[in-house]
């Protein structure tokens, strides 16, 4: 069952990576166009600035959610690595994951409220509801939660994922 869940999350991660790349490219294109437009073409297009900011917000929050899958989020790694025994190490690792669960659950709750209140706010240049930006908090927190559930499940079963600096170099990180 864990393998099926991890398989679904692998596909989610693949999709998330492509969405992040798309937002990254969009931010670069929008900012480049704004600079060229401002200094050479002198055609003010105000809504591009709002769109660039919204894309940048989504880029940051989705990247943070992806970092959770690879344990790139804040945790007490120095303390965890110093503890050699399996029992205390597992307890500390689970403690960090449950702290993450609490934080991301709070972000889901807060993000939902932000999305609802953002329906009454409008981005001045774009004219779109601010929910477009605030939705990034809700969506990324939900994604982080499903990634944390996998990490906790793996820890309990004794098949933890090994955190790596570059996930592409990880190969098999305990997926079996």
Question: What does this protein look like?
Answer:
The longest helix is centred in the first third of the chain and has 40 residues, at 2-41. α1 runs antiparallel to α5. The mean pLDDT is 86. This protein has five helices and no strands. The chain is elongated. It is mostly helical.
Short structural description:
This protein is mainly α.
Main pleated-sheet profile: none
Q: Rounded to an integer, what's the Rg over CA atoms? A: 19 Å
Helix content: over 70%
Number of strands: 0
Basic shape? elongated
What's the order of the H and E elements?
Answer: HHHHH
State the separation between the terminal residues, measured CA to CA. Answer: 12 Å
Features:
5 helices; mainly alpha; 0% strand; elongated
Topology, element by element:
Blueprint: H1 2-41, H2 47-69, H3 77-82, H4 86-118, H5 131-157
Helix pairs in contact: 1-2, 1-5, 2-5, 4-5
